[in-house]
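Lecture notes, part 5. Sequence design as translation. It can be helpful to think of inverse folding as translation between two languages: the language of shapes and the language of residues. The source text, in C-alpha cells, appears below.
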C-alpha cells in the first residue's frame, strides 16, 4: 500500500492548507488564498478610524482653518491636509457624518474622498 508523502511526514496534515474560521463555519483553503485574505483583513483594520475628505485647499490659510475646525470635533486624533491632492485625512474614532458636516461648514464643496482605480 503506497502512502502519500503528507501522510508519511505530516500524519495527514497538509502544511500548505490553512483553516479559515468564518461565521459559524470553517473550511480549508490554499496557503496563497489564506495569506491574501489575511493581508486584506490587515488593510481593513488599518483603514478603520481614517476618514478621507476631498476639499478645495487653495492656500495655507485654508489649511490652518480646516485643521483648527476639524481638530475641535470629539474623537478626532489628528488632521492631515494635502494641498496638491486637495485631500484631508482625519484620524481617530470620530463619526464620519459629523466630520463631513463640519467640513461642509468650512467649505460647501467638501465631500468624501472617492478612490479612482
Amino acid at each position: 500500500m503506497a502512502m502519500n508523502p503528507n501522510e508519511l511526514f505530516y500524519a495527514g496534515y497538509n502544511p500548505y492548507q490553512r483553516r479559515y474560521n468564518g461565521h459559524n463555519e470553517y473550511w480549508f483553503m490554499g496557503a496563497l488564498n489564506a495569506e491574501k485574505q489575511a493581508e486584506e483583513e490587515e488593510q481593513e483594520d488599518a483603514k478603520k478610524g481614517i476618514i478621507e475628505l476631498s476639499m478645495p485647499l487653495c492656500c495655507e490659510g485654508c489649511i490652518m482653518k480646516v485643521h483648527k475646525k476639524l481638530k475641535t470635533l470629539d474623537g478626532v486624533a489628528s488632521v492631515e491636509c494635502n494641498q496638491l491632492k486637495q485631500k484631508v485625512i482625519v484620524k481617530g474614532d470620530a463619526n464620519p457624518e459629523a466630520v463631513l458636516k463640519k467640513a461642509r461648514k468650512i467649505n460647501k464643496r467638501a465631500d468624501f474622498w472617492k478612490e479612482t482605480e
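The translated text above is only one of many valid answers, since several sequences can fold into similar shapes. The radius of gyration is 23 Å.
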